[in-house]
Amino acid sequence: MTVGIRYVLPGDEALFDRVAPDVFDHPVERSQLSRYLTTPGHHLIVAIAEGQIVGQIAAVVHYHPDGRPTELYIDEVGVAPAFQRQGIARRLLDAMLVLGRELGCREGWVGTEPDNDAARALYEPRSEPAESFAMYVLRL
To answer: Residue 121: its pLDDT value, please?
Structure first.
């Protein structure tokens, strides 16, 4: 089965009528998807097999007001369980890194849980040594 990689643009929302289970953490909501796709700096690339989205990577270009380089923050990578271990996440990540370079980003970053061996195996070959940090979810 051929799996294609596609950059998602505003107007591509109908692609999301068929999404394999567990590609996203939650069901895709059309209004939020449209808002995401039309917000400058937000980028989404999907993997499609037989008309169904089977993988995705979402990222945001992060500009700084000081001298730090522009970064590509990779927010999420997901591949349906039935399609894992086929190189799809690697292809999605590679496509997003190419896009980041084209957009002027000089580095990218992503976080994952220390025990997420699959994610660590995906990121470590492309990365400096992993850094430890604490994450806080602040109430708004």
So the answer is: 77
